[in-house]
Amino acid sequence: MMQFSHTPQRFHRTTTTIPSSFSDISMSNKNQITPTTGPFRNRRPWPGLFPCSSKALGTCLGDANCMEQLLVHCANAIESNDATLAQQILWVLNNIAPPDGDSNQRLTSAFLRALVTRATNTGNCKILAAITTAFSSSITTHTFSLMDLATFVDLTPWHRFGFTAANVAILDAIEGYSSVHVVDLSLMHCMQIPTLIDAIATRFEVPPLLKLTTVAVVAVKEASPMLELSYDELGAKLVNFARSKNVTMEFRVVPSCHTDGFARLIEQIRVQHLIYGPESNEALVFNCHMMLHYIPEETLNPSPSPNFDMSSSTSSIRSMFLKAIRSLDPTIVVLVDEDADFTSSKLVTRLRSAFNYLWIPYDSMDSFLPRSSKQREWYEADICWKIENVIAHEGVQRVQRLEPKGRWVQRMMNAKFRGVPFVEDAVSEVKTMLDEHAAGWGLKKEEDHLLLTWKGHDVVFATAWVPC
């Protein structure tokens, strides 16, 4: 593994200060927590619930690991319909994890809200519906203008990393083509495309015709971020911008659904590909940015091991989608996604995985944005939406089904793609971009792939593929 930036010492989330409202809880010498007043008085003790003594409990409860354990116990109580225990844990979490606290507290608060939503949605612990407002408030969703969304994207390298790496790979792949058809599978409303247009205009003396097809995802409730412009308006702005750069551009949007592997999109691309075949000297580019994990996968049943053989699973919609792309013989496929595993059918497994991954955006926000910042509010609302989707929903509504890089690599190879390395220009461009952000962000290379890191922890991967 080649290291491109200094990897800081492994980050340890620190113990947080317990807010003053925690003083309403009394500690008994029987290792139990009992509220001194209100409807929780005289609830049963919690034997074995906490991994520390009563004397150390006050300090323990402020620790991220203990918060995670409380969330796990709460999830188990909700799933087993134990309303009494669930209420007790929710009460404690609500006191030690205010939504405006430090990064660990805000993270825990988001999971708390998601668990209450799950209890309400699933009908488990029905009594919790009556106390929902005491522990949770609805997620504030923001509808972005183009300027707001550009600012949102620029806050961290979370999306810019993939945009930057992908653009360099695409530019290299389309060299010599008179026409380029980019299929942009991204939830970021084509925010990558202006920089790609600018790069095409700069690199080529006679820019190729640029055809852009994007997808309007249907059947995803309040998918974040939301844009106040229609896609027709967005397309007109992109075409005008391209014209200003002397790039001729065509724009098309296809409504399609993740539940069937974007079948309508694939069919339209197939028809176009038949019309504009190889003899037309047109490059076909699939730019997949953090959207493919919306497609259903095998692990609706118990989660597979890291060495799971996906070549034996022919019924996977996710794998079938990749094979459909391969049948179109694309010039290049760029796949960028978050490096985590949210596919387990077990709630507690997903909770642990999400808790130990999504602390990263909360922690990174603390490094440069004040708590009163509207931008931070919008950014963390997006993370809250992800947490709620992972925890509170099941079936086709649960679209945040992230898979780690290794599993996607295996999927691509099974679909008869081979990886291509990112050139040094891509590495240089990404490093320059990271210099604009907080010191905790880093870059490393594993085989042909690039990884964005935060304080040494893998965050987002970028891969590039061509047909075998």
From TrEMBL:
Residue segments, region Disordered: 1-42
Location within or outside the cell: Nucleus
Claim: Transcription is one of the keywords in the record: yes
Main location: nucleus
Renumbered residue ranges of the record's region SAW: 392-466
Residue segments, region Leucine repeat II (LRII): 233-265
UniProt motif (VHIID) ranges: 180-184
Keywords per UniProt: Nucleus, Transcription, Transcription regulation
Polar residues: compositionally biased ranges: 1-39
Protein name listed in UniProt: Scarecrow-like protein 32
Organism from which the protein derives: Cucumis melo var. makuwa (Oriental melon)
